[in-house]
Design brief:
45% of the residues lie in helices and 19% in strands. The chain is an alpha+beta fold and 230 residues long.
Length: 230
């Protein structure tokens, strides 16, 4: 017997809630408790617990020994398959390594998810005692951030963007857009560094390094030389 409208609507809400929980699990790099996740997606703990149990049964999430939820095997598999199909991810590896080595700071690759959020795809950290947090696989707001400005193509006269605000306290950043064959922005590279060791002259050097790396990656992706340097 076909489902009626109310049954269909209820099923859709359940799927929406489960997907919201998956996104919340992915956003918590250090794992999240049931209360963390319920609060993040505005669900009651009992509803969140029931949905998480279903997701865990399908290996989309797992609960560790500290009762924190983390991405499960199936979610990791989907992510791995998706990244293998993303040429930007593969090609950016050498550029990120070189950028981290040249600046001595953390180099990052991000793409736009939508008009409001960016996703960190890849990160290479230097071998230093004080580093920024790991952001791979996490989302950030685009508004006011260096990554957000670079993804919108809004850079300064030297080709890089600086943030109005940063996600981590006491950290600064510079970012530059990566362009494709049609000249459109495909992603952005950035350097994150603690503010205490990044005076204006050092930040300018990081900016120049980011612009060079982004231009080289853009050329590899087929961008016209004029667009790659823009």
């Amino acid at each position: 017997m076909p489902a009626n409208g109310s049954d269909t609507a209820a099923s859709t809400r359940t799927v929406d809630r489960a997907l919201d929980l998956l996104a919340a699990v992915a956003d918590h790099a250090d794992g999240a408790t049931l209360s963390d996740l319920a609060r993040a997606v505005e669900l009651s703990p009992s509803t969140a617990s029931r949905l998480l149990a279903t997701l865990a049964g399908r290996d989309f999430v797992r609960r560790d020994g500290a009762s924190r939820y983390r991405p499960g095997r199936r979610l990791v598999q989907i992510a791995a398959v998706t990244l293998r199909q993303e040429p930007l991810y593969e090609l950016a590896g050498p550029q990120l390594e070189a950028l981290a080595q040249a600046t001595g700071e953390t180099a990052n690759l991000a793409i736009a998810i939508d008009a409001e959020r960016a996703l960190y795809l890849r990160q290479v950290a230097p071998r230093r005692l004080v580093q920024t947090a790991t952001w791979t696989g996490r989302t950030i707001p685009r508004a006011g951030t260096a990554m957000g400005a670079a993804l919108a193509g809004q850079v300064g006269p030297r080709g890089y963007a600086k943030p109005e605000r940063t996600i981590e306290p006491d950290v600064t950043a510079v970012a530059a857009p990566v362009r494709g064959a049609d000249g459109g922005v495909l992603g952005a590279l950035s350097v994150l560094a603690p503010k205490y060791r990044t005076p204006a002259r050092v930040l300018a050097r990081h900016g120049a390094a980011v612009v060079r790396a982004a231009a080289e990656l853009s050329l590899e992706l087929g961008a016209p030389a004029a667009e790659a340097a823009a």
